[in-house]
Amino acid sequence: MASIVRTRALVGAPLALKPPAYTTVRYMSASKKHPPSFAPSFKIFHDVPPLREYRHSLSASDRTVGLVPTMGALHDGHLSLVRQAATENTDIFVSIYVNPTQFGVTEDLSTYPKTWESDIKQLEIVDRELASTSGSGRISAVFAPNTKTMYPILPPSSEVDGKGSFVTITPVAEVLEGASRPVFFRGVATVCMKLFNIMTPERVYFGQKDVQQTVIIKRMVKDFHLNTDVRIGETKREEDGLAMSSRNVYLGSRRREVAVILSQALFAAEEQYVVHHKKSRGDILWVANDIINKMVLKQDELASEKRARFEVDYISLADPESLEEVDVVDPKNGAVLSGAIKMLPLEDPVDGEDCGHGGGIGTVRLIDNILLKPQE
Ligand code: AMP
Fold first, then answer.
1. Among 27, 71, 81, 102, which is best to mutate for testing ligand 1, by the most ligand atoms less than 8 A from CB?
2. Which of 143, 210, 221, 231 to mutate for ligand 1's pocket (most ligand atoms within 8 Å of CB)?
3. Which of 187, 221, 254, 337 places its Cα 20 to 30 Å from the Cα of 301?
4. Ligand 1 touching residue 71 (CB < 6 A)
5. Quick check: CB of 186 below 6 Å from ligand 1?
6. Annotation marks residue 56 as catalytic
7. From the CB of 244, is ligand 1 less than 6 Å away?
8. Within the chain, which residues score under 50 in pLDDT?
9. pLDDT of residue 33
10. Whole-number pLDDT of residue 21
11. CA of 350 to the centre of ligand 1 (A)
């Protein structure tokens, strides 16, 4: 079986570091202290019992709930899931919660963008749009819990061997993103299990942008007999093809311009399959690797105040169910083309340069993928 080339892993943090327990309390209590400056048309819940009571009242009147789980910092990708949910449910619940257990001890939990007021405004605008669409569901609840609510017994652990009640879905959580982020999908599956149990949605909505997450959630739903349907929404992109992401705000203009290389590389590889009917790993991936390598060299040659250097974590061609690497695409199954790059900290910013949120100091990890559909 083919293996993916991984140039650098993100792990390597000393495991003895204390987990950043309850970091999100600051954020969520801020949202409680600062309710939106206008009255949204939907209810905002911070605690479980009133939300459960509300959810039961909806079931009693034959209404259906579609849940869109998010970590806030909403953009059009999130909103497209809300719109999709509105075509299939009477009530849309959106959860906004930055889940600490899916961040590794060295990852960007404390700096993850928090834009509560803007999130609520964006949801309100979408809800007005839905109100004027006949037959459409409406956003009826936003769930914004704090970490004590979500993890009531033990403070959550972000350590690989941390204690707590966790959901692990292996081996699919161990490849691709999971290889360099060992606690990531444990955190994702755990928080989603909690959200699904609290809100018992008929349907849950996830973006194709995070393809491994979709595979893991589908498995969790099947393996644990959860009574919900998993729906996947297409990846929303900026005009030049960059996949929308809450983390893009960290890029700044110089890194933003180069970051588009990931989607360009994946689209070029997709063309090998779709247009040129190539099926072998080498024939599909060479072009993506070539485009990326040329950009790496180009950046290396530029002066430090002009360049935006990056490292490739992986470029992968994998089976859509197992996410194991494939040597040849089986046209009956199709495949997932995916990649992850790390935009390195901005070097020598010039006066007045747009360095992005955080001033360009941190690395920004970007992921993207394209589904190669089955070809009968
Ligand atoms: P996050 O807030 O990053 O946890 O994302 C919440 C949900 O939005 C997940 O299901 C993501 O896959 C989805 N999502 C994020 N970015 C996009 C995008 N560009 N297009 C579609 N869905 C997205």
1. 81
2. 210
3. 337
4. yes
5. no
6. no
7. yes
8. 5-30
9. 53
10. 28
11. 33
Q: Which amino acid is at 225?
A: H
Residue nearest to atom 17 of ligand 1 (CA): 77
Q: Which amino acid is at 13?
A: A
Q: What is the pTM of this model?
A: 0.91
What is the distance between the alpha carbons of residues 5 and 149, in angstroms, rounded to a whole number? 41
Q: What is the pLDDT of residue 13?
A: 28
CA distances from 42 to 61, 91, 124 (A): 18, 10, 8
In the structure encoding, which two tokens stand for residue 346, read together?
């901005």
At residue 211, what is the residue type? Answer: V
Question: What is the rounded distance in angstroms from the CA atom of residue 187 to the CA atom of residue 190?
Answer: 5
